[in-house]
Specification:
Number of strands: 0
Distance between the termini: 26 Å
Strand content: under 5%
Shape: globular
CATH architecture: Up-down Bundle
CATH topology: Amino acid/polyamine transporter I
Radius of gyration: 21 Å
Structural class: mainly alpha
CATH class: Mainly Alpha
């Protein structure tokens, strides 16, 4: 489920990168969108093949540019937020079916909060993982939540008219934040350009981290023989699971060929929620010595994830359930062959 979900997320990121980049040059062509996304997948797969240290260095540059552009957007918008006195937040819920809209949005937004999961997949490559990983995850969640909430507040205050027009037209733009920065009246011409650059680097960062994390999960599956053992093979320096990296890159490239961000994102959301439900269920099975957090958190997480999973489009979760059945059959056959 992790591989399905995050491969779809990676394809979404690649297509998002291509959309942002082409939008900056005024190009609106589906063929160029797919070709640009495929190029990004190939280049970043090569970066990951070059080793963890180079991947981390590339990631630091990407994240720094992204954070700088978003922080500047927030800082420039603060004066308008203060002067508005929160008038754009009343009423807080609007529309014919506010609860249904909220739940569907929560299911889709859940994907955006799951990036910290890649930290856990690098357990072999950090010092004192039992201590380091929980701290890194907690810090990541705090920073991410503060960043998202700040951007949301500025966006609603500065770009309410743009948001309303998008809702009424029922369309989605490749770079909505850039459009809001450009026509929302921030009064700083350089901010839309910064947002466009930050959006491009953000998508590259997501794609890079997904290739890195997915390949490590595939490595572990190869060692357990959930997939062919050859996938767990390391390079001569014993630092990079090169076959796993290539397999992941090829899988993401195939999903990029769908060429539709909405489909890949919704598919990712369903699979993410299902595997998080499984993760919470697994946490309930831990012994008291292994447990880091209260047991009730696992029950809340399990119920919430299963509930939200089925608020995406019906055809998406029907396909997802079908793939779960295929996966269970595959799992049963593989382990039967191993036992024989």
């Amino acid at each position: 489920m992790f591989l399905l979900a995050k491969s779809a997320s990676a394809a979404t990121a690649a297509l998002g990168f291509a959309g942002y980049l082409l939008n900056a040059f005024g190009v609106n062509n589906q063929t160029w969108l797919v070709l640009t996304a495929l190029t990004a997948v190939v280049v970043l797969t090569i970066v990951v093949l070059s080793g963890i240290r180079r991947s981390n260095f590339t990631n630091i540059i990407i994240v720094s540019i992204t954070l700088f552009s978003l922080v500047m957007f927030i800082l420039v918008g603060v004066p308008q937020v203060v002067s508005s006195a929160g008038e754009n937040f009343t009423p807080f819920f609007a529309g014919d079916k506010p609860l249904a809209s909220l739940l569907q949005a929560a299911a889709l937004m859940f994907v955006a909060y799951t990036g910290y999961g890649r930290i856990a997949t690098l357990g072999e490559e950090v010092k004192e993982p039992r201590r380091t990983i929980p701290r890194a995850i907690a810090l990541t969640m705090i920073v991410t939540c503060l960043l998202y909430m700040s951007i949301a507040v500025v966006t609603v205050v500065v770009g309410q008219e743009v948001i309303n027009k998008l809702s009424q037209a029922d369309v989605s733009l490749a770079a909505p934040l850039e459009v809001i920065a450009r026509v929302g009246g921030l009064g700083v011409p350089v901010i839309p350009k910064l947002i466009a650059i930050g959006a491009v680097t953000a998508m590259l960062g997501v794609l890079l981290n997904l290739i890195l994390g997915l390949s490590r999960v595939l490595l572990a599956m190869g060692r357990r023989r959930d997939v062919p053992k050859v996938i767990a093979r390391l390079n001569s320096e014993q630092t990079t699971p090169y076959i796993a990296v290539i397999v992941v890159g090829v899988a993401i490239a195939f999903l990029v060929l769908i060429g539709d961000v909405k489909t890949t994102w919704s598919f990712s959301a369903f699979n993410v929620l299902i595997y998080y439900a499984i993760t919470n269920f697994a946490a309930l099975k831990l012994s008291s010595e292994e447990r880091l957090y209260p047991k009730w958190l696992g029950w809340v997480g399990l119920a919430a994830c299963l509930f939200l999973a089925f608020w995406v489009e019906q055809q998406i979760w029907l396909v997802g359930l079908g793939l779960i059945i295929v996966g269970l059959i595959w799992h049963s056959l593989i382990h039967r062959l191993i036992n024989e």
